[in-house]
Amino acid sequence: MNKFDLIVVGGGHAGVEAAWIASQFDLDVAIVTLPDVGLASAPCNPSVGGVGKGQVVRELDALGGLMGRLADLAGIQYRTLNDSKGLAVQSTRVQIDKSRYSAFAEDIVSKTKNITVIRAKMLGASSLEGGFLVSTSQGDYGSKKLVMTVGTFLNGKLHQGMNQCSGGRVGVESSDSLLSLFSSIKKRPSRFKTGTPSRLLKGSIDTTKMVEQPSDPQTRNFHCMGEYSARNLPQVSCFLTHTNEKTLEIIRDNKEKSPMYNGQIQGVGARYCPSIEDKAYRYPDRNSHHVFVEPEGLDLDTVYPSGISSSLPAEIQEAFIHTIEGLESAVISIPGYAVEYDVVDTTELNLALEYKDIPGLYFAGQVNGTSGYEEAAGQGWVAGVNAALSCFNRAPVFLSRHDSYIGVMIEDLISNTRDEPYRLFTSRSENRLFIREDNAIIRMHPYRSYLLLQNGLDAFLERFVQKTQILSKICDEFIFPENSPDILEFFENQLSTMSRSLTLSELLKQAWLDPVRTLERVLIKFDIVFSKDVIRTVAIEKKYAGYITRFDEQFEKIKKMDGTHIDWEKISKSQNVSFECRSRIEKIKPSTFGQLKRIEGIRPATLAVVASQAL
Amino acid sequence: MIHDGKTVIACATGAQVNSAIAIIRLSGPFNLSDFSSILSRTTLTPMQMERGKLFDNGIEIDDICLCYFKNPKSYTGENLLELYVHGNILNVSRIIKLFTRLDFIREATPGEFSLRALQNKKLTLAQVEGLDLFLNANTPLALEQGMSLLHGELHQAYLDLLTLYKNHKANLELLLDFHEDVGEQEAKDNLHSSWDLLFKCIESLNSRLDPDSSRLLKPEIVLAGLPNAGKSTLFNKLLGEKRAIVSSVPGTTRDYIAENLKIGDCVFRLIDTAGIRLTVDDIESQGIHLSRERLSNAFFSLLLINPFEVETDQLADLLAGTFDLILFTHQDVSGFEQKCQNLVEQFPVLSGHSQLNTNNLSDISALRDSVNKKYLAATSSKPLLLKRHFDVISEVYGSAIRYQNTIRAQSDIGILSHELNTLGHCLQALLGIVSPDEVLDHIFANFCIGK
Known about the structure:
- The complex is a heterodimer.
- Helix content of chain A is about 35%, strand content about 15%.
- Chain A starts with a strand and ends with a helix.
- In chain A, strand 1 (about 1-10), helix 1 (about 15-25) and strand 2 form a beta-alpha-beta unit.
- Chain A is of the alpha+beta class.
- Chain B contains 16 helices and 12 strands.
- Chain B has helices at about 90-100, 110-120, 125-135, 140-150, 155-175, 180, 185-205, 215, 230-240, 280-295, 310-320, 335-345, 360-380, 385-410, 415-430, 435-445, and strands at about 5-10, 20-30, 50-55, 60-70, 80-85, 105, 220-225, 255-265, 265-270, 300-305, 325-330, 355.
- Chain B is flat and about 90 Å long.
- Chain B starts with 6 loop residues before the first strand and ends in a 5-residue tail after the last helix.
- The interface of A and B includes residues 274 and 551 of A.
C-alpha cells in the first residue's frame, strides 16, 4: 500500500491549494480526484476575485497560494470594482478562461514531483494507527493527515425541472455517503443548495444590443511577483443586458414547475445568490434585473449568463432566456440546474480547520458550507499548511480577523452554525480600511515567514516590506517648507494654500488628492525611484493612517481582549456560568475571548464572568 | 451576580407591613411537579389564575391563588410562577423558606428577575432602566418616562433609532458589496435618503436633552446660608414638624438633613445644609463642604440671609453662586429694614431679594408655589431623565454631526463607513450590538440581491 504524509480528497480550488502549500514543505502529498474532472475546474461562474474576494486572492498570493498566479495565466478580462468609492474598498475581479485555468493548474501540479494525483473515486476512509486509510476505486492509500475538500459531492443531488439524479455537478457522479466511515462526523441538520444558470452558445447571442464592459488595462495583476498589468492572454469583454416584464411573466407563470417552490428541493440556498425564480417570486414589484454575459474562455464556444441561475425545466429556461435583449435566439448548450449537498458542522472545527475530535483530519471549501472559489481556496491553504505543520509537530498558524479576510471567514465559520452558504462580504470585517488589496503583502508577511520556507517568494516579500518601510520613513520626514513651490501645483484648486510647512505624509492625506498619483509625482520630481507597487502601498497607507490609528486606539482594548486565550474547560466548569452557556461553550470549545463573544446565545453575564476571572 | 442555573424566589410586593395579599414570584428552569411536596397543584394552565394550597410537612399553611407563565412567554423568559398568598409578614417569610428548603431554589438577589429578563432578551437595557425609573419615581415625569421607556413612546423611539441605523448601514454596505445587483444610482440615492431619516431621529432625541435634567430625577430643594440664618427654622416650617434642631448657636447643623417634601404632584428632597462659614472645627468644615456640593446639584436653591448676623467676606463668597431665591429672615426684629438697606447698598445683587416671615403661612405657600412653577417649566419639554441616556445621546449626536460633515465632503465610501462604525459604536450603548449578520439580513430582506 502506498503511504503519503498527506492525502487531499478533492481536486477543486480548496484541494489544489491545500496540496500545493503542503508540497512546499517537502512532504509526500497525494490528491484524490474524480477521473473526469480537471484540477481547479470552475463549474460555476468563470471569474476569480470580486468585492472582498479579490482581497482573499491577494492574501493567498502573498502566502504562497496558487490562485492569483492561475488567474493571471488564464485571465481574459480585468476589472477594478468600487473604483470610484475610495482606495480602501477597491477589489479586483478577473474573468478566466476556464479550460486554460484548469490546464495551468494541472501543469503546475504535474511539475511538482512530490504531488501524486490519484484519479479515482473515493470509496471510504478510516482512522488507522494514528493516521488514515483512504480506499479508492484504484486501491487503498495510507496517510498521516487527511484534508477533505469534497465540495458539493457529499450526497450531492442534481435538480433540473422534474429530473433528479445523484451528482455533485452536471455530468459528474456524486460520492454518495463519502463519510460513511466517519460515522461520527457531525453534519449540519439541513442541507445546502446551490445553482447555476444555463450556458449559451457564443455564436447564438447578439452582443451589439448589450452594454460592453471591456477589460481595464490599469488593473493590477493578482500575482505579486508578476508584471504589474501586462496580460498573459488576449483580453475580451463582458456584456450587460437585462431581464424584462416578459421574462418574469414566464417565470411567474411556471412557479409550480420550479423544484425550489414545489417542494422538490429542501436545501437552503444563499440569499445573496438567488435563482431568477427567487427574484421573480420574492420581489413581485421588480421587473428588470442585470444579466452579465461572461465569456467562458477564448476557445470555448459558451458564455455564462450571470444572474439567471435556474432549476426550471429546460424548455421554460429557453423560453424566458429568449425574451432577453440580445439573447432572442440564444441556444442553450447546458441547461441550468441546482445541487443539494451535505455540509459539515463547522463549529466542530478549530481555527486550523481541523476536526476537533479527530486530530489530523481537516475540512476545507464548499463542504464547510461556503460558496465561492476564493473562499474555498483560502480555506484550502489554511487546512493544507496546518496539516503540513502538524506533520513536523509544529504549532498551527491562525490567521486573525483583524488583518485578513481569510481570518474573518474562518472565525465566522467555526464560531457559529451558519444558516445559509457563507460568502465573504467586506461588511463582515470590522477593520475594512486596513484589510485592503494593496497591503496584502504587509499583512501576510508575518504569517508567511512563520512557515520558514525561505524560497523566492519569501525573499521578495522581505524586500518589499523593507522598501515600504523606507518609503514610509521618507514620507514622514520629507518636509516641504512653508509655501514651497514644489507643492503649489497640488493646491491649485484649493482656496487655502498651505501657509505652514508640511510633511509628504500630511500632503498625501489631503481629501482632494489622489495619494497614489501625488506620491508618484513628488518622487519623480525628486528623482526617487520605487516600484509602482511600493508607491501604491505606502501612499494608501498614509491616506488612511489617521483613521486606522483611531480605530486601533478605539478598539485597542477590545482587540487585546479578543485575542486573549481562554481556557474553555475551566470556564465550562465554573459555577458562575449558566447551564445553557456551558453547553454552548463545550460544543464550540472557544480558544480566545473574541471567539467566545461571537458564539450565538452567549450571555453578557458569562462574558463578564470570563472577563473578570479567566483573563 | 450568581448564575448557578437555580430557580429564584422573592416577594414581589413590599413585605414590611401586614396586608391582605402578598405576591411571591419564582423564576427559573423548574417544573411544577418539582413542588409536589408543598403545592397542591402540579399542572396549571399558563396565564390563568387558579386556586391551590400550600403544605408544610402535610399540614396546610395557606390557601392561595396562583398563576403560571411558561417560558419563553413570561416576564423573565424563564418558567415563572406567581403565588398570591395572605400578606402577613410571617406568612410570607415562612412560605419563602418553604421553597428555599428545596435545593434548586434560592432567594433572588435584588433586581435579579429583571436581570434575567435582560439576559433572556425579554427586555433591553433601556427598558430595564425604564422599569427602575418607574418603580422608584418621585415625580410624575419620572413615572411617565419610566413607562415610556418600558413600553411606550421612548421605547419606540429607541427601536426606531435601531431600525433606521440598520437601514442606513445596510444601504452603505449595499453600495460597496452589492452595487452590481441594485445599480449604482439607486444605491446612492438610498444612502442619502436613509441618512436623512436617521439624522432626524437622532436630532429629535437630542432636542430632548437638558444638561440640568438629572436634577429633575430626584429634585432637591437646598437651603443655604451663613450660620444662624434660620435655615433649620424654615426647614421645619416647610415640613410642618420639628425635624432639625433649632438653636441660636451658630453651626448647630453640622451635617445636612434631608426629608421628603411633597409639592404639587411631585416629591422633592428638602435639604437643610450646614451654615457655610470659615471654621477650624474639622467636622463642621466637612459639613460645609457637603453643603456646597448639595448646592451645586440643587434643583431649587434658596439663600437665607439674617441681616443682623452678616460676615461680609463670607456673604460675598456665597453670593458668587446663583440662587433661585434669596430671602431675608428675622423680619420681625426691629431695625430689619435699615439692616437690609445697608446690605443692598453693599451688595447690589441683593436688590431683588424677598422677605420671609416664617410665621406667616402665605409666605410659606408662596415659596412652595415658586418651587412648583419652576418644576413645571423645567419638565414641560419632557427632557430625558437618565444620566446614562443623556451621555450616550450627546455622544451619538456629536458623532452624527461629524458623520454628516463626512457624508457631505467625502466620496470615499471606505472612510464614510469607518465614521458610521464610530457612530454605531456609540449607539451600541443604547441599543445593543448590531452584528454584520443582522445588517446582511436587513439587506437580503429588503433588496433584490444576486446579479
